[in-house]
């Protein structure tokens, strides 16, 4: 084990890697409850999604640790699960089975791009400003969903939106959870989001807003059945060959591709394993991510991607793939705690969505807002995601504006040919689907 993971060379040991693996797991354990809560709105079985989430996270993280040897954990991504639920299924009216087939297709394309070496060309084709805008826009969208789930904002016939009833006990519980989570994170607690959910759930039970467990069977049980979701992506794969699904697949692929690349760089930099400003074993790391997406789609969950929360494990000493192996084991153990889904209500998960949104929106600071031709497409990308309730629409509008503003400004030579291709695809998307 020492030789395989090069623990001595990396200045770490098994105990330190174990603590790092546990720390990373706790920092991202919220996804075990948030993901089923969100995907179940499409009609998917919540228990099956819980199991699929844990299995996809465990397998993806294990492959990352054993093959790429990175201290990076994977799980169904926040943002992509929102896109899956609210844009693809609820917005477009696409059955969740077909949406899973789209996730599977994006994972297979990701593998092809990785194995063929095209990934670098694709990464370089998209301007950094749009990459940052997409991530920030998704953050704003997720935060908006959190505010809705907490009933902190509600529909209004006059102004479209208005402040919710702050005297409602459930709204007050969500506000309490948000404040607690913010305080924990402000104090530097690594798993502040997860602990915030636990404290909120306990408070809800104490005040009679959440039904508490009545016995051990309400806490621990056997592994939930995957039967309702397993294999649906394969059975419905023939339904993805439409223009609408092309846009869906491109969005899944785009967000996963750049989210993973950004996370890998962030974690590798913090761990001190970057070499000459380059990512060692990048191909293996990206392959691990793509493989996890394929596995996740088959078992029944939205796109699986690398988590920036992995930096919490690195911050306590994690340096090798052994950290990921331990994190994967904790996700497998989590399979036996599905009954706790009953106490993790929307008021409990809403603060997590809002805070994740805050963390994602911070990327806006790196966009050169003083360059108008760059600011306009970035602005519309971010703004239109929550306003149209669609991540795909936000991306499409931003990618349409980018070539226009750059050409008008005389910077056409900076536009990669792939961007022109995406421009045409998104124009067709609006013409034929809207």
TrEMBL record:
- For whether the record's keyword set contains Transport, the answer is yes
Short name of any one Pfam family annotated for the protein:
Xan_ur_permease
Q: How is the protein disposed in the membrane? A: Multi-pass membrane protein
Which superkingdom?
Bacteria
GO molecular function ontology, one term from the record: purine nucleobase transmembrane transporter activity
Q: Where in the cell is it found?
A: Cell membrane
Q: What's a GO cellular component annotated to this UniProt protein?
A: plasma membrane
Family note: Belongs to the nucleobase:cation symporter-2 (NCS2) (TC 2.A.40) family. Azg-like subfamily.
The protein here is known as: Hypothetical conserved protein
């Amino acid at each position: 084990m020492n030789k395989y993971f090069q623990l001595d060379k990396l200045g770490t040991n098994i105990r330190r890697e174990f603590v790092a693996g546990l720390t990373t797991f706790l920092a991202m354990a919220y996804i075990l409850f948030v993901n089923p809560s969100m995907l179940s709105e499409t009609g998917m079985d919540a228990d099956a999604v819980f199991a699929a989430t844990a299995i996809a996270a465990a397998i993806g993280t294990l492959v990352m640790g054993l093959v790429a040897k990175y201290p990076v954990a994977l799980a169904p991504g926040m943002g992509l699960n929102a896109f899956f639920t609210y844009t693809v299924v609820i917005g477009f009216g696409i059955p969740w089975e077909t949406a899973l087939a789209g996730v599977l297709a994006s994972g297979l394309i990701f593998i092809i791009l990785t194995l063929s070496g095209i990934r670098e060309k694709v990464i370089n084709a998209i301007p950094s400003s749009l990459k940052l805008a997409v991530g920030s826009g998704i953050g704003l969208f997720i935060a908006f969903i959190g505010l809705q789930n907490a009933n902190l904002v509600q529909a209004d016939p006059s102004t479209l939106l208005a402040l919710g009833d702050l005297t409602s006990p459930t709204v007050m519980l969500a506000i309490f959870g948000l404040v607690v989570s913010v305080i924990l994170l402000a104090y530097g607690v690594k798993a502040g989001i997860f602990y915030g959910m636990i404290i909120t759930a306990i408070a809800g039970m104490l005040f009679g807003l959440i039904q508490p467990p009545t016995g051990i069977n309400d806490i621990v049980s056997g592994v939930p059945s995957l039967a309702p979701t397993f294999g649906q992506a394969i059975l419905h794969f023939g339904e993805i060959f439409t223009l609408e699904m092309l846009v869906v697949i491109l969005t899944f692929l785009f967000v996963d591709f750049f989210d993973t690349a950004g996370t890998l760089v962030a974690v590798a930099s913090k761990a001190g394993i970057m070499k000459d400003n380059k990512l060692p074993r990048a191909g293996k790391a990206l392959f691990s991510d793509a493989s996890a997406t394929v596995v996740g789609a088959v078992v029944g969950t939205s796109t699986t991607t690398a988590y920036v929360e992995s930096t919490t494990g690195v911050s306590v000493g994690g340096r090798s793939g052994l950290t990921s192996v331990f994190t994967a084991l904790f996700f497998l153990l989590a399979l036996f705690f599905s009954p706790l889904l009953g106490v993790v209500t929307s008021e409990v998960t809403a603060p997590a969505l809002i805070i994740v949104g805050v963390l994602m929106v911070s990327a806006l600071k790196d966009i050169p807002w003083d360059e108008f031709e760059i600011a306009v497409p970035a602005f519309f990308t971010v703004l239109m995601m929550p306003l149209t309730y669609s991540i795909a629409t936000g991306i499409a509008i931003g990618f349409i504006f980018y070539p226009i503003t750059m050409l008008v400004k005389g910077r056409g030579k900076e536009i990669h040919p792939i961007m022109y291709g995406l421009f045409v695809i998104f124009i067709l998307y609006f013409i034929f689907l809207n």
